[in-house]
Fold this sequence. Notes:
CATH architecture of the domain at 21-66 and 80-114: Sandwich
Low-confidence stretches: 8-22
Shape: elongated
Amino acid sequence: xxxxxxxxxxxxxxxxxxxxxxxxxxxxxxxxxxxxxxxxxxxxxxxxxxxxxxxxxxxxxxxxxxxxxxxxxxxxxxxxxxxxxxxxxxxxxxxxxxxxxxxxxxxxxxxxxxxxxxxxxxxxxxxx
Length: 128
C-alpha cells in the first residue's frame, strides 16, 4: 500500500531551479595518439549558434539560441523552448591552439585538439 502519492500537482515547481542550461551540455573527452578528442551533444542548435575557442590551454564551448516567435493564437500554460544557452570550459594543458578542428553533425559536436610537443621541464644543473 502506498500512502504517499507518486505524482503531486506541484511536482514541477522546482524544475527551473534544478535544471540549469549550463549543466546540460554533456561531453566525453578522451586522449589517443597525442591528441584530445571531445564529443558533445548539442541537439536543437545550428552550427551558427555554437562557438568554440581555445586559449592558454583551455577549451571553451558555448551555444546560444533565442526564438522570437510571438504567437497570439496559442494560450501557453508553460513555455520552455524559446531560448537556451550552454557553456562548458575544460583545461587540457599544453595544446596546439592553431590546429584545433571542430565538426558539427546531427546534433553532435566533435572537436579534435592536438597536443603540443612537450619540451622537457627539467634542466640538468652542473655542479661546480
